[in-house]
Structure formats: C-alpha cells, structure tokens
Write a structure and sequence with these properties.
Blueprint lengths: L2 E5 L5 E5 L6 H7 L18 E4 L1 H4 L7 H8 L9 E3 L12 E5 L4
Parallel strand pairs: 1-5
Antiparallel strand pairs: 1-2, 3-4, 3-5
The chain binds FE2/S2 (inorganic) cluster.
C-alpha cells in the first residue's frame, strides 16, 4: 500500500496509507485533513489545491487544460508546484509522495 506524506495547513506532517485507484484528494479528505474539495473531484472548484514536492513533480500525470485553467486563477498558485489533488490517482509509483495542502482561496 503506497504511503503519502502530507503537510497540512497548520504545518503538521501526516503519514497516510493510500489505496491504489483513489485520488489524492480522497486520501487527504478521508483522513480528516482540512481540504474542501467542494465539487467532489469533478475538476471544477480548485478547492483541492496542493503543492507537490519538486522531486515528485515529473513522476505524476500531466495536467489537463481544465486543471491548468483552474489553477492559474488561484490566489496561491505556484507554477512549479500547484496541482489539483482530485486529478492525481494513486498507484504504486507514488509510494513516498510528498506534498502540502495549499491555503484556502
Ligand atoms: S475537488 Fe473540485 S477541483 Fe478537485
């Protein structure tokens, strides 16, 4: 089972077990960390914004045009780190993934 390392909005670190096939957003939300994910993973709200550690950035799937458009409008957008966590799906290659939950918009 892949392990995901998440820093929450209070700066606390969490080691989370993640099931393959789940989205990163689901893993964060189901472990009761603070993330809104208002649209439920439909790529339409950007309230599941996270910062992916640089080391991992090239190992996850590419962003869709929709995801880029939503993120670029975000107040705390960081081009080299920002992703929508509902658009990243867990598999064994993501074991050890490091990320931070972005501030609320
Ligand atoms: S949960 Fe709405 S865009 Fe990710």
């Amino acid at each position: 089972m892949p392990k995901i390392y998440v820093t929450d909005r209070n700066g606390e670190k969490h080691d989370l077990d993640a099931d393959a096939g789940d989205s990163l957003m689901e893993v964060i939300r189901d472990n009761d960390l603070d993330i809104e994910a208002i649209c439920g993973g439909c790529c339409s709200c950007a309230t599941c914004h996270v910062y992916i550690d640089q080391e991992w950035r090239d190992r996850i799937n590419e962003m869709s045009d929709e995801e880029i458009e939503l993120l670029e409008d975000e107040q705390y957008y960081v081009e080299s780190e920002s992703r929508l966590s509902c658009q990243i799906f867990i598999d064994d290659k993501l074991d050890g993934l490091v990320l931070k939950v972005a501030p609320p918009a």
